[in-house]
Sequence to fold (367 residues):
Amino acid sequence: MKPSPVSSADMNEASATKTSAPSANGGQSFDMALEAAGLEQPGSQSGSQPALGPPGAPQYIPPALLTPEPLKAPSPSGVTAAAAYRKAVEQQATPAQMSGLQMYKDDQLLRNPGGRNYYLDEKKVVENSNKQPVGALISKDFSAVVGNIKNFFGNMFLGTTVLHRNERNEITQGSQRGLLRTIGDFCKDLGSALSLGAWHPDSAVAPHGLKNRFLYSVSKLKDAFFGDILTGVPSSVNHMGKNLILSGLHLAEVLPDALTGGFEPGQKVTTAIFDNGHVALEYLTDIIPSGDAWLRVHASNWKELKPPVLYNLKMPEYCKGDVRWENVRNTPFRKSIETIGALITDALAIGFAGQTGISSNRRNQIE
Fold:
């Protein structure tokens, strides 16, 4: 039997029938299986991808598969960032809150050597500690003695440096004139006054005209007698006496430090006694006539109708350009205790002078 010939049309029909025949595992066509296999991502698990609809149909993606955009905080503007930085810097520079008494004690211990935690040569104040070795305590005491003797000779000659705190609570350096320098300033001021400004070592330009020369001469005479002789010389002598007293005080501190310095309570008591004694001596030498506080209390400005006492009370806490105020923080507490102390010493001085005068008059009358 000969096989019957098969036409090309029959072969195409058979091929089409085979391709579109359903599979035995579920009725999907082979073409659809190939299409699904081509769309599946390699390495993905079954069921991990959403079902895809026919081409051109909108696809649905479950909300759980949506990736949320990261939340971003709005970046601050340049002005806001600069303000925040400035505020942080100001907070770091602002000193810790201190009472008026604490600020006064801090200022006084910065003026001359002797404070337990004050290292004036290094311009620093260390944390309070009552556990220092005995040798370190005694060395600190002798250092204070030597430092005050050094300041004594400095105040006798050209002057000394004085430490104080500025508006940012930083320890800065000032100066005070010595006795020899004050006398030299008196000679220069007097020479400038007598020469009517022809000799002017303190100014680069000489005064011109008769009126200006006369006014210049009057101002220099005022500086010579009031600024140098009546104020400068007694003030320098006051500083010299203060240094001698403080050197004796801290020399006396050596013995209790040697005996009780090995015990923390002993260190604490000795430090409190001698630091407070240092501050008290500074105060007493300041409020007597010619002392720094006495000069501040008795300062005046008649052009502004501010008499003594009132002028000092109206002064700001920080004042530059005047040696009477630029080396201290003129706080309300300082103004109060210095005003009271200076007025008391005035009353005592007047009473002492009166008693001396009455006694001498009576003695003269009896004789």
